[in-house]
């Protein structure tokens, strides 16, 4: 077998003197990393060389003996390029390592100086052995610490193992607890639904029972307490609520209503009887002479719920009370205003404008003379004694005019429509008569209509509040009470205006009516619009 030229070159390099492979001491001191790299490269090259020699020897032996130890027993397999045991493959692999190591700077420097790689590799191996022995000594010195560390690691491992077991048990417990929590949540949800359903049923049943049960305090108050006591009013409101609740439940077909219907009916009849007697007694008190009906009328407003109770439970009694009130108040207002108008007209000025006081009136003196001369007009023997006779009714029949300029002078009469005078207190006729005071017609008209306006507004508001009406129903009830009085006032005004020749008084009365309409609108009383619109 011919020697490999690459092997010869490596042997040639190994034949270099050993002293040349050692770098100077200063370089080893200054460049320890470079030295280590060189040692590693030399060791690699030496190992590669030994491997090459060993494989070459083994290859020669296989060629001589054959694969089974005997020559020519069996031919080797021809694998071609796949044969990894061939010399070419081994040499290629070694060549790759050699080329990689030759690129190292330290190896290049050693090759340039001719260092013997075998001696250099031995030196490197010796140093590595020294380092290994030193490491072994260090390990022996730290053996106790290492043993202690080993024991600690073993103990930690045991602790961790126990913790793992505990955590595993805890995890299994948590899984069981989680399932229990889900079960409890489901049970809690079901119980919550049942609780809400029971509370809803309890609320409905509570309302039903509270609406149907008749307490003893209600029975005692309705049967024994006077109607003027506050507790009677409170229990009456509760009785009204229970009666309404029973009617509602009866419409729904609740059988329990039959148990309390009899008791509620008896209490209702008793309450209606007591309320009817009380209200009628109040209304009859209006009829007493010299009674200020406004005081008991205002007192009735405190018991307006009585009429509401009658309206909801006994409409026939409510209608009876309303009709009695209308009849009584209608007569009272008519009597009051008829008397007031009669006494009020007695304090009017005696000297008022008449037909003959108007401008442009026909002079009747000449006409009377001609009428007296009628039979003697053609004879010429007229008796002048007839004209001089003071007893003759036709002589100077036209009365003397009384200062016509004052009749058509406004003067201070316009103050009657001033804001302060318009809503001033009404005139009191007997006081004016005692003081011998006289007033023009517009002042009497203002006093009369202001009294009518004030009482009408109060009556309308009372009707709306006590009888629980509004709109057209309130106006109809108001006219049922005040209709006769308003008609009487209008007839009196028409009769006066028929023979009235005081134009200034009529003009001022028109303005008074317009201002009273505005006052009624501010007080929110529309019932007087029709009456005031038919004024002068």
UniProtKB/TrEMBL annotation:
Similarity section: Belongs to the VPS52 family.
Domain Vps52 C-terminal: residue ranges: 327-369, 388-532
UniProt-recorded name of the protein: Vacuolar protein sorting-associated protein 52 homolog
UniProt organism field: Eschrichtius robustus
Location in the cell: Golgi apparatus, trans-Golgi network
Annotated ranges, domain Vps52 coiled-coil: 138-310
PANTHER family registered for this protein in UniProt: SUPPRESSOR OF ACTIN MUTATIONS 2/VACUOLAR PROTEIN SORTING 52, VACUOLAR PROTEIN SORTING-ASSOCIATED PROTEIN 52 HOMOLOG
Keyword set, alphabetical order: Golgi apparatus, Protein transport, Transport
GO terms (BP aspect): endocytic recycling; Golgi to vacuole transport; lysosomal transport; protein transport; retrograde transport, endosome to Golgi
